[in-house]
Amino acid sequence: MRAQPDPSASEGHAQTGSLQFVLKARLLMRLYVNIDHVATVRQARRTDEPDPVRAAVLAELGGADGITVHLREDRRHVQDRDVRILMETARTGINLELAAASEVLALAEAWRPMQATLVPEKREEVTTEGGLALDTPDARRHVAAAADRLKAAGIRTSLFIDPDPEAVRASVQMGVDAVELHTGEYANTRGAERDAQLGRLRRAASLGRSLGLAVHAGHGLTYENVTPVAVVPEIEELNIGHSIISRAVLVGLERATREMAEILRRARA
Q: For the chain, what is the largest distance between any 2 Cα atoms, rounded to a whole number of angstroms?
C-alpha cells in the first residue's frame, strides 16, 4: 500500500519539510475536503455512483491539501472499498475519521492512513453532534487506548473535541499529535452568541498550541462563515465537507474546492 504523505507539506503539496516549518511559515492553512456526502448520495440508491474516489481526484485538482473520510461503524455512507482505493490513489493525504471501536481500529492499523481522527458516534445521529466525551476517567481510558493503538501503528493521531480547556488538556495527557475543534456550535449560532463561540474556539486553539498540539477545526463550516475561523492563527487545518459538496452540485467539485481554498488563502494573506 502506497505510503501516505506528511500533513506538514506546504505549497504544491510537497511532501518534504516538517510541521515546524509550516508553523513558522505563518501557519499556512490546510484544506481537507470531506467526501462523505458523495458516498451518501451513492448509498441512497445502493448503486456505484457517484464514486467518492473520483470525487477525491477532483477535490485535489481544485486545491485540496487532503481528503477526509469517516468510516462509520454502520457504513451508512463511506465503505471499506472506498478507503482502500483512496489509500492507493490519493495524491495528498487521507484523514480517516473513526470511532474508538475495535473493528474500525483494526482496519486503520492495517491501512495506515496519514492521519486518523477519533470521533464520537451515535447510530441515531444524522451527523456528528459534538466532540468526544472526555469528562470521566473511563471515557478517557477508552479513547486513550484507541489512540495508543493508532500511534503504535505509526499513524498521526487526532481527537475531535469540543473547544473546552478541559478537553484540550485531556488530549495532551493522552499524547496525541493534534486536536480538531468542533465548530458546530459556532456555525449554528448568530450575532453575539456566535461571537462568544468564536472566542471559545480562539481560546481553545491558543491553549492547544501552547501545550504542543497541532490544532485543526471543522463541522458546519461554510463559504459564508469560515473566514473568522480561518484567521485564527493557531488553527492550521480545516475539515470541510457538506458545504463544498453542496456547492459542487451547482458548479462542480473542482471549482467548489478551489473557491473554498481561495477563501482560506485570503484569510491568511
A: 49
Question: How many other C-beta atoms are found inside a 10 Å radius of the C-beta of residue 173?
Answer: 11
Residue 211 DSSP label = T
Tell me which residues are annotated as active site: 70, 97, 219
DSSP 13: G
188: containing domain: 11-267
| Residue owning grid cell 484544506 | 31
Residues 6+ apart with CB under 8 A from 47: none
139: exposed, middle or buried (C-beta count within 10 Å: 0-12, 13-18, 19+)? middle
Q: Among 143, 31, 187, which Cα is nearest to 95's? A: 31
Q: Which residues of the chain have pLDDT under 70?
A: 1-27, 122-128
Is 212 inside any structural domain? yes
Residue 10, pLDDT score: 38
**Do 213 and 178 form a contact (C-beta atoms < 8 A)?**
yes
Task: Report the CATH number at residue 31.
Answer: 3.20.20.70
End-to-end CA distance of the chain: 37
Beta bridge partners of 97: 70, 117
**Residue 260 within any structural domain of the chain:** yes
pTM score of the predicted model: 0.89
DSSP 217: E
Q: Are strands 214-218 and 178-182 parallel, antiparallel or unpaired?
A: parallel
**Under DSSP, is residue 173 helix (H, G, I), strand (E, B) or coil?**
helix
